[in-house]
């Protein structure tokens, strides 16, 4: 009987275990063996997701100082801060796969890793804050609710918390728009203008059409992703159309019509060449977004240094305490052996 090459047998057993875990719809955890392609795909997807949360703070963050009331300012502040938190959970999830956070940030600001195309569009009025909450956070919910059942444990668990916050974001956006629609003619016009500008880019957030999405199939086989880009886009349209009717705005798509037979809304085709342009760096705000992120990273260097120095000092202090405790125990034991009261 031939002796198996060293390493060949355990690798096969590990692959079988991995396949069974997926087939049983259970989670892969950081300690488990996983194929290199699975790990690399997850790192890429989670990093891109984390970058989107962090860059996504910018378009709305620009309006914090110009919010129309203290209440709106407090809400917007909380929302933008939530997005920072989402970025942090996700960078932590990427770290469980062996990725280095400093390296991921470097890849973002050098343009080697992407973030969602939607954040390369400008926010021109306060109505944009509402429409981003309604459309962009709404699209994020469609995308992310299925990710709560993603096969990689840390990613799935991060998503559960993130989704709860995204649904608050969507509601605050919609509530802001309802308020503006009850206001002046000018405010209603601002809402409609923001809807016109953000509708198509929001549909593009789900990525290219299924026939043109090279990584989707593999991600679905690995159960990282549960639904195709087109399925999620349809779900978003079906969810949003009745909300637009209730709000009293028109979605800028003449081809939007209820399909009796399929019981879904048929809709027009987004301009895929625009998505391609924006993804490849030529959107209205790409340069400004990345430059702002690079600047913020440089400005934060002293904070990272101080935090690292603090952590090192804490560690030294803890080590000294542990050493002292061990010595005390030793002295007490020696004293006991000699019959001397400690
Ligand atoms: Fe978020
Ligand atoms: Fe959000």
Quick description:
With 342 residues, the chain is mainly alpha-helical. It has 13 helices and two strands; from the N terminus they run ααααααααααββααα. The protein has a two-stranded antiparallel sheet with strand order 1-2.
Helices and strands, with pairings:
Elements: H1 8-23, H2 36-55, H3 57-61, H4 70-95, H5 101-109, H6 126-144, H7 153-181, H8 185-204, H9 216-221, H10 229-247, E1 257-259, E2 264-266, H11 272-282, H12 286-299, H13 301-337
Antiparallel strand pairs: 1-2
Helix pairs in contact: 2-4, 4-7, 6-7, 6-8, 6-10
The structure holds fe (ii) ion (2 copies).
What does this structure look like?
- The protein has 342 residues and is mainly α.
- The protein contains 13 helices and two strands, in the order H-H-H-H-H-H-H-H-H-H-E-E-H-H-H.
- It has helices at 8-23, 36-55, 57-61, 70-95, 101-109, 126-144, 153-181, 185-204, 216-221, 229-247, 272-282, 286-299, 301-337; strands at 257-259, 264-266.
- Strands 1-2 form a two-stranded antiparallel sheet.
- A hairpin with a 4-residue loop joins strand 1 (257-259) and strand 2.
- The longest helix is centred in the last third of the chain and has 37 residues, at 301-337.
- It is globular and about 95 Å long.
- The termini are far apart.
- It binds fe (ii) ion (2 copies).
